Amino acid sequence: MNLLKKCVAVLALVPFIALACPEPEVPLDVAPDRAQDLAALQRGAKTFVNYCLGCHAASSMRYNRLRDIGLDEATVKANLLFTSEKVGDVMSIPMQPKDAKAWFGTTPPDLSVIARSEATEEGNGRDWLYTYLRGFYKDDTRPTGWNNIVCKNVAMPHVFWELQGTQKMVLSKPVAEEGKEASNEEGKFDHFELVTPGKMSKLEYDTTVADLVAYLQWQSEPTAQLRRQLGVWVVMFLAVLAFLAWRLNASYWKEVK
Amino acid sequence: MAFVEKKLPANASAVDKGLAWVDSRFPLTKLWNDQWGKYYAPKNFNFWYIFGSLAMLVLVIQIVTGIFLVMNYKPDANLAFASVETTIMRDVPWGWLVRYMHSTGASAFFIIVYLHMTRGLLYGSYRKPRELIWLFGVGIFLCLMGEAFMGYLLPWGQMSFWGAQVIVNLFGAIPFIGPELSLWIRGDYVVSDATLNRFFSFHVIAIPLVLLGLVAAHLIALHEVGSNNPDGVEIKENLDKDGHPVDGIPSHPYYSVHDIFGVTVFLVVFSAIVFFAPEMGGYFLEANNFVPADALKTPNHIAPVWYFTPFYSILRATTSQFIYALEIGVVAYVCMIFFKSRLAGLWKTIAVIAGAAIIIAFNVFEAKFFGVVLMGVSVMILAGLPWFDQSPVKSIRYRPSWHKYVYIVFGISFLVLGYLGVKPPGVWGSAFSLDIAQTVSQICSLIYFGFFLLMPWWSAMGTFKPVPSRVTFHAH
Fold first, then answer.
1. Residues of B in contact with A57 (CB under 8 A)
2. Do residues B364 and B225 share a domain?
3. Is the peptide bond between B278 and the residue preceding it cis, with omega within 30 degrees of 0?
4. B234 lies in which domain range?
5. Which sign, positive or negative, has the C-alpha torsion B420, B422, B428, B432?
6. Which residues of B touch A254 (CB under 8 A)?
7. What is the pTM of this model?
């Protein structure tokens, strides 16, 4: 009976076992570092609340923490709070997991620490997000009509299509070997080509995404700057202490023959 | 015996009188003197001898930071991740600092303990009469591994969940009792809230209590026989007129002040990591662990934390092909014991029977089971070191020069196993229809086991240098 229950439990999981994003097919672009730019962080916060919070929660992030990037409570209440939430609440969303599964196949991931979760040895999470948000292309074989070069077959539609426009993927042609015909297999990703322009130019869109990604990175660890600033003092203090301890030790050990 | 109160002259200070009151009822001054104050340690300790004190420091750091973390952590599958990422990291003042100290402390503990064990290897610190110190140490190492493994589940991230799932499923490979054993450990058919709760209990109370007991035993055993030193000279064999070793110095003040210096240097490095690189490129805080655990999403690459990877590599290296190599190895080893050792006849008979049983088992049970067995053996084999080592001298300083290269090759194999354990399988491609990384892991595993199992022979080979009667000490 136990074995039967176990088999059923395992089999029940089979249709739903999905993989996280597969390894990206392209090298990641390097996102500009705007962690010190408060204006960029504030613009990013605005983009986040307007475009992302509809589906993605940031349930570790409280609205009033935005004061750390220079937005006072009045500004937050006037511009960034749209529902009945209070300024001390976390950025949760009303979407129910059951509905999310029906609409997207999965719940949109929480974005509180998304920049930390996408860090790799090759690039930090900022780079992954920057390349991802600029990597959507038209793909009519997908339910949403969009695919992504960084996260293949992603369930997320291109939320920024109005700003970036519609781009399509151009593949490099496979090189024919001498004396043989060119193979029919698809080439690798070569570049994107803009099919329909959006409201923003490429530069404007890239900078909007850079601001958003800077905000997401800040949101993933709001204490990062404080941590580094404190660290300088702590390590300097301990270095002085180590020096004094070294001389104290030497003074005692002079007596040892 | 009638109770005798220590009496001090009337003009003695209040502190002295207070101390005398306590000393009449509790051996406080005696404890201090025996364990540290007047504990005579060799005066020629070098850099390698700081790691014991540092290990104690990190144990205290982990316990204190752990106490504060538990004040806000919630051991519930639905609440755990948020209690770390929302409450501790953001809402609790300085919570982020306590969390980073605890995560960095865990990795620092293993770096320190590996270096501490290396010292033992270099200077023969496990040799008679210090075998029991070494065995308590192996016990501490095992508890530490369990403690770290259980602690890692608590943040309830993807790596926490799936790492635990893989490792607990390994117990399922044990024949006959495996699946029931895994079920018992997990408390459920998959890693779940039940598992989290029991791992929390083990991590916070059960194993720390055992650890504290073992550390106390480790230190008591050490102070009973006295410390070894880089020359492997027994300093108690040369006493001065006061009964103290001529090559010894009282730990207080000399090693108090020496260890304070060592601690401050450690704290500089520790703080640099905590404040500037707490994630350490994804090795101390893994990126995938910032995603809440999801039983329905398998990560692309599941690997244990870096400090387990050498042993995990050995597990992965054990394929059915490797079992053939091991069978040959077992036969060769039994022959060596039978023809080339000085063990009593009874032991030789036992060796032959055990060898035969192992060969039969290799052909009955699957490689997966032996991967688990070898992983366990690779840790437990450390306990045999006092008996494997048949060298006439303790310290590397007086062994034949080529012994150094044996240790270096062993060390490199261990590091290579560790490196390959972090990487996904097939990371070095293939050649001659062989997976290069897997073949290298297998060779390094053979070197690892060979180092210990062949030690009774190679440790006694070569021309040894004369061991001095006094330690090598240069005045500071």
1. none
2. no
3. no
4. 38-290
5. positive
6. 475-476
7. 0.92
